[in-house]
Design goal:
Elements: E1 6-9, H1 20-30, H2 34-40, H3 43-48, H4 54-62, H5 71-78, H6 87-97, E2 101-106, H7 110-123, E3 135-138, H8 139-142, H9 149-158, E4 166-170, H10 173-181, E5 185-188, H11 195-205
Parallel strand pairs: 1-2, 1-4, 2-3, 4-5
Helix pairs in contact: 1-5
């Protein structure tokens, strides 16, 4: 039997419904192909690691677009991928928090978190996002991002966690593989949190 003490959650695609294609389509409508831009620039990774400011990031995108495209339209397009936060996700987190230490680890950026905060506050005005976790790690705040081993090691060390007693759940298989190589138990999410998660967690806990 495995003794699981902590669970690390990804945000988008695990807790929050996400559709990255909506952002890609929104920028195409504005006049830029993000996939092409990404191949010639490290700007996205730099922004996720907090190495450039939001204003510099928007300026970089603006250079790829017609002059009349406003900053507001760029932000709207960038956050188009952020969908809804299901109540079921929060209910599951509440249930889990009574049994495990919960942590959030997300490759993200200042604009997306600002957009997410607005979604949360609008949907659950009397609730507090921070109450669901023992600690929250956003890549742009800590300067580290998945799948680099350093981000997992950083959290394990800071929170005094043992890899084999920690479960990591993410919707990106590459991130799960990286965590698994360090000894963490992993769950590859194919959809946002639901009753299926308890079944997967039970399998891990019943391992000898």
């Amino acid at each position: 039997m495995q003794k699981i003490k902590a669970i690390l959650f990804d945000l988008g695609g695990v807790i929050l419904n996400l559709d990255t294609q909506k952002t890609i389509d929104s920028f195409i409508a504005l006049g830029a192909d993000l996939n092409v831009f990404q191949t010639k620039s490290a700007i996205f990774e730099m922004y996720e690691c907090g190495k450039i400011s939001t204003s510099d990031f928007i300026l970089s995108l603006k250079k790829e677009l017609p002059e009349y495209i406003s900053e507001a339209l760029i932000i709207e397009a960038w956050n188009a991928m952020l969908l809804d936060l299901p109540a079921q996700s929060l209910e599951i987190l509440k249930e889990l928090k009574s049994k495990y230490k919960l942590f959030l680890i997300s490759n993200t950026n200042e604009l997306h978190i600002s957009g997410f905060d607005k979604i949360f506050e609008k949907s659950y005005p009397l609730d507090s996002w921070k109450n669901y976790f023992d600690a929250i790690y956003y890549s742009h705040n800590i300067g580290l991002r998945k799948p680099n081993a350093s981000v997992f090691n950083f959290i394990l060390m800071e929170q005094n966690l043992t890899a084999r007693e920690t479960v990591f759940i993410d919707d990106t298989e590459m991130h799960c593989n990286a965590a698994s190589e360090l000894g963490l138990k992993t769950i590859h999410a194919k959809q946002v949190l639901g009753t299926w998660f308890f079944e997967e967690l039970k399998k891990i806990e019943e391992e000898k």
